[in-house]
């Protein structure tokens, strides 16, 4: 487990722009060091701004689509064209920045393709296999959930044997979801949290205090664990950290 690195940004926009630059630079650097890179995406407002901002970064042209595999940490188990799907929101934004190879774009199954969330989760786990994410992007809910792993819910098991889980009766709509499990997140090389908003400040403070009832507290990369947060989300933390 790596120690948490806190990176503060003055606003949500600066957070998104900073993460976009860091993401592009890291992908380019890692691609120069190895033949394949596996990137796990997250959904949410800030993440979507990050994906859109990548297209404005000149260095993005150096990213080789033949080396890049794209995955999702979770998605809503709704029909393929449903606007709630994380992948449906992210792909149009990413396509303006990256020339994604469809054969290397691993979208989670939709409700019109699989019978139920459990079957869909099993299918995604088979596809995932022993893949280790070079970068795993995560958001965090006001309750401290990550991906679709919720506190006090059967979806959250820090030592789960499965690679992916079908989530039903989730406390946040829609109730049916798919998620990778905590062990998959924790075998990632780099775990990057993107957190914005005053409503997240209490959960951020609890994570940094070590509250293990929150799934976010358990998420760590093997090389790096970075928390990239805006001013509002970090207001409950000590102010001796450097602002960006």
Automatic annotation (TrEMBL):
InterPro entries: 6-phosphogluconolactonase_DevB, 6PGL, Glc/Gal-6P_isomerase, NagB/RpiA_transferase-like. GO terms for biological process: carbohydrate metabolic process; pentose-phosphate shunt. It holds the Pfam family Glucosamine_iso. Residues 11-227 form the Glucosamine/galactosamine-6-phosphate isomerase domain. Pathway: Carbohydrate degradation; pentose phosphate pathway; D-ribulose 5-phosphate from D-glucose 6-phosphate (oxidative stage): step 2/3. It catalyses: 6-phospho-D-glucono-1,5-lactone + H2O = 6-phospho-D-gluconate + H(+). GO terms for molecular function: 6-phosphogluconolactonase activity. Keywords: Hydrolase. Hydrolysis of 6-phosphogluconolactone to 6-phosphogluconate. PANTHER family: 6-PHOSPHOGLUCONOLACTONASE. Belongs to the glucosamine/galactosamine-6-phosphate isomerase family. 6-phosphogluconolactonase subfamily. This is 6-phosphogluconolactonase. It comes from Cutibacterium modestum. The gene is pgl.
